[in-house]
Design goal:
32% of the residues lie in helices and 19% in strands. The protein has 180 residues and is of the alpha/beta class. The chain has a six-stranded mixed β-sheet with strand order 1-6-5-2-4-3, sandwiched between helices.
Amino acid sequence: MSSVITEPPERSNPYSERIKLVLGDITYQDTDSILTIIPQNLEYKGSLNDSIREAAGEDLEIFLQENVINPRPSDIYAIPGFTLPCDHIFFCIIPVWRTEFDRRDKFLLYAARKALELSFDMGLRSVSIPFIGAGKNGFPKQRAARLISQGIQERLYEGLKEVRIVCPDADDLALFEGRF
């Protein structure tokens, strides 16, 4: 039997310390933007989108219907935060998930990546990302946590001062611990 003692691995991204795990409600985050996903047909589904719609006010739905025309999966839109404490809501378009095949990893990975890319393009310094895609009809939670974490790590950049991963309960938050 042999033993190898090594130094702990270095973080894969020099900005990883800017990722914060937050136990709470996405609608209370005061970052520059928050992210959510929405099906291509723009129908609100799930408790996350329902809570965002309720907290943002009725103008949110009107704005979406009037300004997001023929969205395609993996498109991302920045819209005003309306009555939320954030300045912007990022809506990443996903397919309408009817089968397991529709739940392809790339769409969840794209959502996390594109939230950071759009933050860069807009000159934003903070973004909050909820535990997207892991609802009752979504991805297995471990898989969703891995994909979200991967997407964030791949797109972290110097100007982004804070990325919050926001989970409503401690069990979900624990799935992200040790990933950064």
